[in-house]
Structure formats: C-alpha cells, structure tokens
TrEMBL record:
Record field: compositional bias (Basic and acidic residues): 15-29
CDD domains per record: HP_PGM_like (cd07067)
Region Disordered, residue ranges: 1-29
Species this chain originates from: Microbispora cellulosiformans
One Pfam family in the UniProt entry: His_Phos_1
Taxonomy, superkingdom: Bacteria
Protein name: Histidine phosphatase family protein
InterPro entries hit by this protein: His_Pase_superF_clade-1, His_PPase_superfam
Length: 146
C-alpha cells in the first residue's frame, strides 16, 4: 500500500490534476527502490495525476490498472478493489490517497500507525486469498517513507 508522493497546489487546478512536486518525484523514486525488490506483478492506481506519476516512478515496467474506485475511497472501497484481484497475482502495489490508504493498512493488519505521510508505504503479507481479504487478515511487514 502506498500513499501518493507529495503533490503541488495551483489555483484553479482540479484536485485530480495536481502534479507531483520535485520532492514528490524524488521520494517516489526512492520508495521505488524498496517496492521493486518486492517484484510486484501489478499496480492498482487511482486515476489522479499524482497517483499515476507516483506509480510510474515506483514500479516502472510493471503493468498498471487505473481503478476509478481508488480515488477518494474509504477503506471498504479499497478492500473491494483488492478482493477483485486475480488469484494468479501474487504481489501488487496499490497507490492511493489518505485517509483511505492509512485506514486500510490499519484495518488489514490491526496495527496502529502514527500517521501515513505522502509517499509512505506499508508492506503487508496477506494470510488469505485476495477475495477473502478483510480486517486483520494481513501481517504488517514494514512501514517506510523515503
């Protein structure tokens, strides 16, 4: 699970169109070093500009699916996205937004996280197939931030 990297604000620019800042670009590349070691088979990504760019920098060359349901999602919405994942996919990266991503990490693992800043990521090992993912079905392996 990854929260998008830092994005800029510009007057009149819709939220979904906000680009990454230079710091956001650097942070996403740095987080990608860890993410790529996990060899994800798929990236599930919100359609916003900032999440798509974060995903490109985290996992270049990994197939990505843009999931409309990730944008402005509550944890249950994100859980539904995970549950739809093909059983053949062993490892994936979900790139989304807070508070949904932070709350989903907590729900899946039962962990209490002290915040989840931009470009934070959580590595979770699920103990069940994707379709059975739910509260406390995962184990928090690592939380990181560039």
């Amino acid at each position: 699970m990854v929260r998008h990297a830092q994005a800029g604000h510009a007057p009149g620019l819709p939220d979904s169109e906000r680009p990454l800042t230079p710091r956001g670009e650097r942070d996403a590349r740095a987080a990608g070093e860890e993410i790529r070691r996990l060899a994800p088979a798929l990236v599930l990504c919100s359609p916003s500009v900032r999440t798509r760019r974060t995903a490109e920098l985290l996992a270049p060359g990994v197939p990505a699916e843009i999931e409309r349901d990730i944008y402005e999602a509550f944890p249950d919405d994100l859980l539904d996205v995970l549950r739809r994942t093909d059983a053949e996919i062993a490892s994936l990266v979900l790139v989304g937004h807070n508070p949904g991503v932070h709350e989903l990490v907590a729900a899946l693992t039962g962990a209490r996280l002290d915040g989840f800043p931009t470009c934070a990521y959580a590595v979770i090992e699920l103990g069940v197939p994707w379709e059975e993912a739910g509260p406390e079905t995962g184990r928090l392996i690592r939380v990181g931030r560039p």
